[in-house]
Design goal:
Elements (H helix, E strand, L loop, with lengths): L1 H5 L6 H11 L1 H9 L16 E6 L7 E8 L5 E8 L9
Length: 92
């Protein structure tokens, strides 16, 4: 597990989480407060509602990802992986 594993300590995930929950009650409450409230919705049939999202975190390396999900079945319908050639490789 992350920091502990890097230092050669092997601890079960459930024990680490349980310990953190006992020790850090304030931090746990603050993290729980910032949860995203997701709105529930009903879709009558497939392809009636689609969600689209893109990931531009890798654009520095020339990669862009887009996906579209069907709101009825929650399955990925379209997935694009693009390679961009608009890189500025100059150094100041």
């Amino acid at each position: 597990m992350g920091f502990l594993g890097e230092h050669g300590l092997k601890i079960q995930r459930r024990r680490a989480i349980g310990s953190l929950q006992r020790v850090d009650r304030l931090g746990r409450a603050l993290r729980k407060k910032n949860l995203i409230n997701r709105q529930e919705y009903k879709v009558k049939r497939p392809n009636a509602l689609w969600h689209g999202d893109g990931c531009h975190k890798l654009i520095l390396w020339g990669y862009v990802i887009h996906a579209f999900v069907d709101g009825f079945s929650r399955t990925v319908r379209i997935f694009f992986f693009s390679i961009t050639f608009l890189l500025n490789l100059s150094c100041l």
